[in-house]
Design a protein that fits this description.
- The protein is built from two helices and ten strands.
- With 126 residues, the chain is mostly beta strands.
- The strands form three sheets. A four-stranded antiparallel β-sheet has the order 2-6-9-8.
- A hairpin with a 2-residue loop joins strand 8 (89-97) and strand 9.
- The chain is globular, with a radius of gyration of 15 Å.
- The relative contact order is 0.26.
- Residues 1-21 have low confidence and may be disordered.
């Protein structure tokens, strides 16, 4: 079977994380390099390695041609938050163009994201 590289680290995830540019710690939001079978659905994890307390993050997803996000039954971007997120964490997004989304996730009580390393959310592409 032919595999297609999903070079999502830089092409898909464009960081717009103002808090990190102002922090003094070492914080990294990223999607690892992945492979998927052409025409299949793939689950994409987003990781956060942080040395500072983080209560919110925002980033843009810019999907390349021939790759699109999986939407839920109501036509919304389907995002699953990990257990690292606070119980009151809220995620929202704005569709900026046909293939670009801006995601914002925050804790309404300002509770910091648990742990200092690992997955914070997933979404699917096809």
């Amino acid at each position: 079977m032919k595999f297609r590289q999903l070079y999502i680290i830089w092409g898909l995830l464009l960081l717009v994380w103002q808090g990190f540019s102002q922090s003094s710690g070492n914080n990294k939001l990223y999607i690892p390099e992945m492979q998927a079978v052409a025409g299949s659905t793939a689950s994409i994890p987003v990781y956060l390695d942080n040395s500072d307390d983080v209560v919110a993050f925002q980033f843009d997803l810019d999907f390349p041609d021939k790759i699109s996000p999986v939407l839920d039954e109501k036509g919304r971007l389907a995002v699953n938050l990990s257990e690292r997120m606070a119980s009151d964490a809220v995620g929202t997004y704005n569709r900026l163009s046909s293939n670009k989304y801006r995601l914002l996730v925050f804790s309404s009580s300002n509770e910091a994201i648990g742990g200092s390393k690992g997955e914070i959310l997933t979404f699917q592409v096809k």
